[in-house]
């Protein structure tokens, strides 16, 4: 008996496709994702944020990332790592994060989230996601407003 198109006999077709898609990330895709993180890091400094500039920078440096991908990067990659800078009484970073530090710290965090089944579960835990979305929603809404304005004719 043959498996349906796009499926493997063991029933793991969807997971296998997702793994293949992840492993096929090109250097350009990765560079664009890193650029996204670096640009978004400016949202988490203890200083006045220029949302219009950040939105324009995202459109320029990350043109292949969809609006949904930018939102996912914000809430699921950047905010969990850099968000604590805004939650402390005296933030350690008030002017700008170093690009290399942003890329390294987010990469390490993402690797840790994939390290074990428990880490993957905890990273996707509904409470943690809702809490993050609640805390940083106003920042995303401001950025979203500017991104939407850039798309308007």
Automatic annotation (TrEMBL):
<dbReference type="InterPro" id="IPR055507">
    <property type="entry name" value="DUF7079"/>
</dbReference>
<dbReference type="Pfam" id="PF23296">
    <property type="entry name" value="DUF7079"/>
</dbReference>
<feature type="region of interest" description="Disordered">
    <location>
        <begin position="1"/>
        <end position="20"/>
    </location>
</feature>
<protein>
    <recommendedName>
        <fullName>DUF7079 domain-containing protein</fullName>
    </recommendedName>
</protein>
<feature type="compositionally biased region" description="Basic and acidic residues">
    <location>
        <begin position="11"/>
        <end position="20"/>
    </location>
</feature>
<feature type="domain" description="DUF7079">
    <location>
        <begin position="32"/>
        <end position="144"/>
    </location>
</feature>
């Amino acid at each position: 008996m043959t498996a349906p198109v796009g499926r493997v006999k063991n029933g793991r077709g969807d997971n296998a496709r997702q793994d293949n898609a992840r492993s096929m990330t090109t250097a350009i895709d990765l560079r664009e994702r890193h650029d996204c993180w670096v640009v978004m890091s400016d949202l988490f400094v203890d200083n006045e944020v220029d949302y219009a500039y950040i939105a324009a920078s995202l459109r320029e440096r990350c043109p292949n990332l969809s609006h949904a991908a930018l939102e996912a990067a914000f809430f699921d990659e950047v905010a969990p790592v850099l968000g604590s800078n805004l939650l402390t009484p005296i933030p350690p970073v008030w002017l700008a994060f170093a690009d290399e530090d942003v890329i390294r710290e987010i990469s390490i965090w993402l690797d840790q989230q994939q390290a074990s089944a428990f880490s993957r579960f905890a990273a996707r835990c509904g409470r943690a996601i809702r809490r993050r979305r609640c805390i940083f929603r106003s920042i995303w809404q401001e950025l979203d407003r500017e991104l939407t304005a850039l798309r308007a004719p």
